[in-house]
Amino acid sequence: MSACIAMVAGEASGDLLGSRLILALKRQLPDVRFVGIGGPAMEREGLESWFPAERLAVNGIVDALGRVPELLGIRHELIARIKAESPLIFIGIDAPDFNLGVERRLKASGIPTVHYVSPSVWMWRAGRIKKIRRSADHILCLFPFEPELYQRAGVAATYVGHPLADEFELEPNRMEMRERLCLPRHAEIVALLPGSRNGEVSRLAADFVGAAKLIHEQRPDTRFLAPFVTRETRSFFEQAMHEAGLPKDFPITLMFGHSHDAMIAADVVLLASGTATLEAALLKRPMVIAYKMPAWQFGLVRRLMYLPYVGLPNILCKEFVVPERLQERCEPVGLAEDVIRWLADKEATAALSQRFTDVHLSLRQDNASKAAAAICGMLGGRAR
Fold this sequence. Notes:
Blueprint: E1 4-9, H1 12-28, E2 33-38, H2 40-44, E3 47-52, H3 60-66, H4 68-85, E4 90-93, H5 96-108, E5 113-116, H6 128-135, E6 138-141, H7 146-152, E7 156-159, H8 163-167, H9 174-180, E8 189-193, H10 198-218, E9 223-228, H11 231-243, E10 252-256, H12 259-265, E11 268-272, H13 275-282, E12 287-291, H14 295-304, H15 312-317, E13 324-326, H16 332-344, H17 346-363, H18 367-379
Parallel strand pairs: 1-2, 1-4, 2-3, 4-5, 5-6, 6-7, 8-9, 8-11, 9-10, 11-12, 12-13
Helix pairs in contact: 1-18, 4-5, 5-6, 9-12, 10-11, 10-16
């Protein structure tokens, strides 16, 4: 039987990362098999997936607690099968709450381990780096400031760039996108992205709708785009629109998917904190970042955080280049004021676009190829 590499990815984003990594590794190691857990994209590239990847997905603390026995059972069987295969290396792709435990046990048994996508040790839960050191022989980092944090703690790490930076064009064409979406070429357009999860949208919808209403009162020609991932998240937003008494002719277009299209077409983006903020930065769009969570949860997070900002654009630029409105500061008047400030200040938006172009270039590293090279470097001649 040929040599193998074991991998685990538990979410759609990890499945995509894993599929690109497998493709890049096959160019270097054409005779190596791939086994473990992955989704359809990884399976298309040849992964033999032993469990459905969706069984690793959890939604919040309550769901995670209720599924502990199932997840422990999967992990126990997975580790046994990986040890039986004696792979060249194990690669845990994101999903740190599951993968770090697998990595720790495999590393203890002598199997080299890699964790692909650094947990956010640079933002909070910094003590987690000790657990990572016990689990992973090597970390593949998506952001340029991460390797130094690991190297100071005695963990080998390589910066491999961010896949979105490879995927996104350096100069997205706003006018072309407006034509595709049948939008006026020269209107002021604001994209509203209150999140992809039900909890996020339910907490932010009323504030986003209220802000849109205030913006329209002050700038009547402004139009709005609001893309949603699911019918449930859209329904939360529609309810907020109804409760705010928006007229039927209010200039807002609700969309299913196409969040990137909405951001490209927009002059300004109002959005929930998360990966979408990085996407907006790579699309060179000025933005206002908002977020709300239960007060007890925010209190815990705030105590563990040591950076003054939460948005990825600000973290990457190491200063507040875009406004953040969290918790009680996330309210319609403040959100509207911040959006209008961007709409009115063309000089500031041009300067921000250049700043984001610099970020984009720093993150564009041919991510999959660089990750594969780091892994092959660990293997040396073992895979030949």
